[in-house]
C-alpha cells in the first residue's frame, strides 16, 4: 500500500469514529498535517502513526500491515525489472506471477511489465490477453492507449504476425497528433512501421516512414542508431532496385560503424554492399570475396542465423554467375540456419525454385515455389507473393511443355 492508501485508511477510520481532522490531530500533529497524510502528500512517523491509531481505537497493524506488504511488493517489482534487464526472463516471470496486484495506477505499469516479460518468453497469448484487458480499461486515456498499442505491435512482431503488428502500430500512429508522445517513442514507432513495411516488401511505404523516423531522431539520435537507420534505408532502396540511394546510405552506415568500431553492424553493411556490387556493377568476384569475409567472421562468432543469411546472399550472386549447382547447395544449407525467420525462408525457397528451374528440375522447382508462396501468403507479403506468382506462371508453362515433349517422345519410341 502506498502513502495514498495509508491516508485513505486513516481517513476511513476517522470518519467511522465521527471525528474531524482537528479532533484527530489535537495534541499529536497539526490538522493540516492530517490533511496531507490523508491525501497521500505526507507520511507519518511510526510514533505519530501509533498515536493516531490509539486515538482511532485501531491496532497499528490495521494501518501498517499492507504498507509493509507494499514495500515488499515494490522491492520484488524492482528485482523483477532488474532480472529482465539481465535477460533472466523466466526468473522475472516467476517473481512477477507471485506478486499481488498493485493499486490502479501502479497496476498498469505492473501488467505492462509482465506483458513484456511474457513477450520475451514467447507467451504471446498471455501477453495479448493482458494488454487487451488494459486497453479496455483505459477509459479514454489516449497516452495509455498509445503505450498499449506500441506493446501490442511488439508482441505481434515477435510472434511473426507482421500484418497484425502494422495494424496496432498504425493505431498508435493515428494518435500522434492528439497526444504528447515522448520523442523517442515517436521515432521508435515510425522506425518499427518502416522496418515492417520493408520486411513485407512494401518499399515505398517503408522509405516514407523511415525518412520520418530519421527527421524525428536526427537531433538526439545516437550514432549507432543513426547507422542502423541508414542501413535499413540502404536495404530498402536495394530491394526496390534504387541502387544510387542504396549506395549512398550504405556508405553512410559503413562510415558510422567503422568510426564506432562496431564490427557486427559493419559486417552487415559489407554484406549488403557485396550484393549491391554484384547487382549494380556486375563485380561478381569482388562481391563473393566480401561475402566470404562476412561468412568467416560470423563463423568465428558461431552466429548461425547470419551465416545462413550470408550463404543466401552468396547463392544469389552465384546464380548471377551461372553457378547454379553450388548455389543450390548453399541455399539448402541455409534453410536450417534461418528456420526461425519465415520471410527469409520464403526468399530462400523462391531462390531454390528459380535455381531448380534453371537446372530443368521442374518438380523440385514447383515444390519450393509452393513453400515460398505459402510463407509469403501467411505474412501478407504482397511483393513476394507477386514475384513468386510470376515465377509460378513460367514454371507451370514449362512443366506443361515438358509433359507434352515427354509424351511425344514416348509415342515416337
UniProtKB/TrEMBL annotation:
Question: Where does the HTH cro/C1-type domain lie?
Answer: 10-63
User: Which Gene Ontology terms cover its molecular function?
Assistant: DNA binding
The main location is cytoplasm
Q: Spell out the residue ranges that the record assigns to TPR repeats.
A: 187-220, 346-379
InterPro entries per record: Bac_ResReg_Asp_Phosphatase, Cro/C1-type_HTH, Lambda_DNA-bd_dom_sf, TPR-like_helical_dom_sf, TPR_rpt
Q: Among its keywords, does the record have Cytoplasm?
A: yes
Q: Which CDD domains match?
A: HTH_XRE
The compartments listed are: Cytoplasm
Q: Which domain of life is it from?
A: Bacteria
Q: Which UniProt keywords apply?
A: Cytoplasm, Repeat, TPR repeat
Q: Name one GO cellular component term.
A: cytoplasm
Q: Which family does it belong to?
A: Belongs to the Rap family.
**Name of this chain's protein:** HTH cro/C1-type domain-containing protein
What is the organism of origin for this protein?
Tumebacillus avium
